[in-house]
Amino acid sequence: xxxxxxxxxxxxxxxxxxxxxxxxxxxxxxxxxxxxxxxxxxxxxxxxxxxxxxxxxxxxxxxxxxxxxxxxxxxxxxxxxxxxxxxxxxxxxxxxxxxxxxxxxxxxxxxxxxxxxxxxxxxxxxxxxxxxxxxxxxxxxxxxxxxxxxxxxxxxxxxxxxxxxxxxxxxxxxxxxxxxxxxxxxxxxxxxxxxxxxxxxxxxxxxxxxxxxxxxxxxxxxxxxxxxxxxxxxxxxxxxxxxxxxxxxxxxxxxxxxxxxxxxxxxxxxxxxxxxxxxxxxxxxxxxxxxxxxxxxxxxxxxxxxxxxxxxxxxxxxxx
Length: 320
Known about the structure:
This protein is mostly helical. The chain has helices spanning 16-29, 34-43, 53-63, 68-77, 90-93, 99-115, 119-126, 137-150, 154-164, 173-186, 194-209, 215-242, 286-299, 302-319.
């Protein structure tokens, strides 16, 4: 959708007149009837020059005049329609769907996915989109950075935020402020660190809260457990280097230092149920939380308690 940006720089905000012209040119290419063109002109009069997110809404609403599927996306974006089944919304990614139509509708759907905190689906919706493809390039970059931040992808988030901030003076102030905060927050987060693990725990909890307790959530949870095991082994190794005599002493009576899978005979299938929000366990009453920690001390390696306690503290701080 070249020609919609104001300059030939890395990227720039789209010009409302250019977007409107491209939208009505698309209607003409699709051989819209005179009645449809008249309706579109009522939806977007020539003297109406919306900015920011309203630009995408206006363009999509005009597209919906001739495309029923576009109307479904507009309804979904307003919270009035059924969820878009990402990543299975094939027609929105099909090369046979006109690029102007699919690019802007995907951007509109992505905004709703961000509101629903479905960040993996959001990235899938934006996959392959370029700033020159859409009516609101700033929104594209901003939502992509938000998803990368929430999914703990430090390098990608920092790069996207930097691109967004290239035109700090031209983008909404809220985009610039949040982009700076996200970049500062995620810089220096190392994969496998306690901070990284806690963030990925949050992501697993969010998926559970959204009712996405399926194979993908199980995979993410297993990755968290593996990272915990690696962190524990690293801590044990460092402890042994600092005090080698302690590792040769008599058994301490503490819980086992290695986690082992149980010898279960079941099929490994569970019924997916809503089990409360992913953060509820961080907000347990003090007595229940202490009891949970005691049980962790019995059933898991000793270092798990320290890590889980740190996670409790993180959740409590975020609630404040």
